[in-house]
Amino acid sequence: MVSLETSIGSLKLANPVLTASGTFGYGTEYSDFMDVSKLGAVIVKGTTIKPREGNPYPRMAETPSGMLNAVGLQNKGADYFVKNIYPVVCKLGCPAIVNVSGSTIEDYVAVAEVMDSLDGIPAIELNISCPNVRQGGMAFGVNPCSAEEVVSAVRKAYHKTLIVKLSPNVTDITEIARAAESAGADAVSLINTLLGMAVDAERRRPVLSTVTGGLSGPAVKPVALRMVWQTAKAVSIPVIGIGGICSATDAIEFMLAGASAVEIGTANFIDPSVSAKVIDGMQAYLSRHGFNSVKEIIGALEV
Amino acid sequence: MKKYQLDLCVRDNIHIAEDAFMLEVTHSEPLPESEPGQFAELLVEGSNKTFLRRPISIHDYDRDGNIIRFLIRRVGPGTEKLSELKSSDTLNVILPLGNGFVFRNQSVQRPLLVGGGVGIAPLLFLGREMKACGIEPTFLFGGREKCNLLRMGEYSNLGRVFATTEDGSFGQKGFVTDHSLLEEEQFDYIFSCGPTPMMKAVAGFASEHGIGCQVSLEHRMACGIGACLCCVEETKSGNVCVCKDGPVFTTDKLLW
Fold this sequence. Notes:
The structure holds 2 protein chains of 2 kinds.
Chain A: E1 6-8, E2 11-13, E3 17-19, E4 41-47, E5 60-63, E6 66-69, H1 77-89, E7 96-100, H2 105-116, E8 123-127, H3 144-157, E9 161-165, H4 173-182, E10 187-190, E11 194-197, E12 199-200, E13 205-206, E14 212-216, H5 221-234, E15 239-242, H6 248-256, E16 261-264, H7 267-270, H8 274-288
Helix pairs in contact in A: 2-3, 3-4, 4-5, 6-8
Chain B: E1 4-17, E2 20-26, E3 39-42, E4 54-57, E5 60-62, E6 67-73, H1 77-83, E7 90-97, E8 111-116, H2 121-132, E9 138-143, H3 152-156, E10 160-165, E11 172-173, H4 181-184, E12 189-193, H5 196-208, E13 212-216, E14 232-235, E15 238-241, E16 248-250
Parallel strand pairs in B: 8-9, 8-12, 9-10, 10-11, 12-13
Antiparallel strand pairs in B: 1-2, 1-7, 2-6, 3-4, 3-7, 5-6, 13-16, 14-15
């Protein structure tokens, strides 16, 4: 039997297949379609210190091989999470990682402190890359100095595995990755969505209420692969690959490019059991190629 | 209600108007139970212009024949592709989704089912379930012109059917809320599905007359199961997902 075990910092995962924040709810939404406990981890929806209503409808536009979203971090806040969602995600049977979002450094630190106190949450993913909020969000992730500042502040307050989710909307993503690493991140995950836009020509209006939104899906995969490859060479902490993964082959491509694990996002909307299929397909690929462990293919791209 | 992702078999795909078709699917095993007003997410394959599934309400659920019917208007590349499905093709479907119309515990005796355009679709299944419970539905349908009013014969098997068209080519001329039926008879509950301006007018009528009203909303949707938070409607209790908390809402919960 091939081993799919991998690790992100000190966090051991049964396999490298995670579900991306904002695409898998709190895990329970998918339990009719697959055995959620088989996942490497579930990354739950972005959580902020106070509740957020998100952006007005319409928040979504279908695009060729993908979609734009402008949800804007709708969530019920950290207190609600602790009382109502935490007990549920603790029972998923796989690690639950919380995506932590904020508008100010103080906000990020406050949510991180809450998560630090929850024994059932082994890691957080710091979202410094949301393109759909007016304040904070992506602003922290497009400049190495502000990225370093927010990651350092959270690092002081948070003592478990700290993953930093990076924005692709930058000139050089490796600069931001290095800033996160030097500030104490245990891993980086990339990419968040690419800033995009859709226009309704008939109505001469933007499709999204926010005009711009984040592009995801297979359309972004080549960009994501390139950035994962560049980043994996630039940092020594693990890289988690995200961007348009729809199949085991896609996931393996990211791991060959240097990812220690992957997140499946938009594909969950098309096939709610896709992540289970990716785990099985990854196992089959490794057997077929005579590998004993998935770790053998991390960064194994021959260039 | 448990949700299923199934490869269903296309039994027939019937073109019933210039821009509308009825897709019939079946399965080797009994189809999952579903409620009127619930919907399914249909996978569109072989189209490079679409990416997401298409949310389509359940038009009819024939338990004896193990058939589900979808009444679909061709409006874009996704529904265009679905219209090309042929008998014995496979269609991947997620169902049943959302919350349907609630009539069993509402002490409804004289319901009026108001539909506009292809929004009439879920009202056939609803009317059939009402009739099975001994409640006689009355249908009031509106369309721009006669050809927009689909499958009227099927509805008239279940109850009386009244209609309006904007050009007067069928039924009374005008909008559904202009129909004389609304002055001549009294109803104790309204169930509606159609264009938002029509449903808002219907909700206004219901509110003026102090009768309950449920409407089925249609929003741009991705996941269909309450995970992506794209299809939100702003309500008195904040943003809720049309796919999971709806698509059917009692109008007193909405900000209409």
